[in-house]
Specification:
Strand content: 15-25%
Number of strands: 6
Helix content: 25-40%
Shape: globular
Number of helices: 4
Strand order of the largest sheet: 1-2
Radius of gyration: 14 Å
Largest sheet: 2 strands, antiparallel
Length: about 140
Amino acid sequence: MAPPVSLRRQVAKRAGHRCEYCGLAQEGQAATFHLDHIVPIFARGKTVLDNLALACINCSLRKGARQTATDPQTGRSARLFHPRQQKWNHHFRWAGEKIIGITAVGRGTISALGLNSGENEIIRSFERILGRHPPPGHL
């Protein structure tokens, strides 16, 4: 069952109409961003405002029902970034079009969601030309 339209609007507005994982703007994208259950339904996550994040198609599909990933630096399991409980700038930094993980959460999330794929970096370079990169609040 799809969430009510009013809930989708609240999530999108709170996110500034950007993916809460990679910062991509919904503006200019052909596909409508997904509502991601941060804690997946199978893990008893609810379809409520506090458990939903706006996610671009790439981040949404790569995240799926995952809650953890391997930190490539340590080889240990780390929780994925939780947009409701954590601040983006505490786990990530920008280096041009590339996202740098500064914690196990950041590094694991980058790896699991493929945040630095070649396609993503190309999109960000165009977003920079259009004045939409880096995202506000992600500096």
